[in-house]
Predict the structure.
Amino acid sequence: MTESPKYIVNKKQKNMEIRTYHGYIQAEVQVIGSGYRSVIEKGFRVLAGYIFGNNISRQSIEMTTPVQVSRSQKIAMTTPVTVTGKDSYKVAFIMPSEYTLDTLPIPGDKSIRITSIPDHQMAAIRFSGYFNQDQINENKQLLGQWLDDQGLETIGDYIVAGYNPPWVPGLFARNEVLIEIRN
């Protein structure tokens, strides 16, 4: 069975949950693209290369779920200004829990960053289907409204998480939209 980050469900209402996640380590890469599906494909290739042995020790790392994608933090304005119609995203793989920052292989691709994510609380909404921008936006809106109704404050931007390989039929695919909430 594929490992996923450990969490405790603190509250559940229909397909929405408030969760407390234990800390974990993730490998992440910045990707430029015009939508979640295209950036996941680009980022997945880079990160899959890392776990399949494109690292200094040529070591394979077990695949985990989910693959996560979120819009990157805005960067301070510089000149000249160029307009491309594309955005920056962060695509991340969560590393197996057996590893520490000291025991993970060093990536062979310098665009990959290894980061430690501390314990945190997330709100999540689960949905099935393929990554579709309209479906993602609809679930962001539903989760945001639910959190407003609960009186909860969010931190950062939404994360879109996919748990299944692309050959799993959309009806059976598990996806989530998540956002960190303030304790």
Observations:
- Residues 7-181 form a domain with the Multidrug-efflux Transporter 1 Regulator Bmrr; Chain A fold (CATH 3.20.80.10).
- The chain has two helices and nine strands.
- Confidence is low (pLDDT under 50) at residues 74-85.
